[in-house]
Please model this.
Amino acid sequence: MTDTVPSPSSATPMARRFRGYLPVVVDVETGGFDWNRHALLEIAAVPIDLDQDGRFVLGQTASAHLHPAPGTEIDPQSLEVTGIDLDHPFRFAKHEKEALDHVFAPVRAAVKKHGCQRAILVGHNAHFDLNFLNAAVARVGHKRNPFHPFSVFDTVTLAGVAYGQTVLARAVQASGQEWNAADAHSAVYDAEQTARLFCTIVNAWPRPQ
Model:
């Protein structure tokens, strides 16, 4: 597969930095580890933005809680880890198509803002998140998925190179930021912490000429 790349003279700083891709940090919480079988229960996406000094910063987070899709399963042990209460009265869950629409719309707007060709998923063990996202897209037949179907930026690799750490909590702490274990395993918290980790590492890297 090939991608159309903006010419260097016309590309925005973001498009030039990542070859026409917009990094978007995604975290999912699920009903298990098998993306073909287990339910997608939470999703959060954080487009990466640029501040006035050209440094990478977090954009606006979009998130949704989801009803388990028909035919998917939930491993009770997964709920013990995440603490998700599917029957909580203030969960305000959406069905998969509506949830994907809700998250994809601001991602597409951010892609357009930066003159990029498409989003590229950034995650900690990124293919786990991408596989669950792609499975949900396939279930609902979504036609406007802004993410590259298989390429990712993985903060496990980046943090391993930068800090010698591969566990998210330890990598975040090694980057000089705080980690609150009580808030972990929430899609929003994990996505925003992963986004801060990504920005810290990339901002410290020499800019390509």
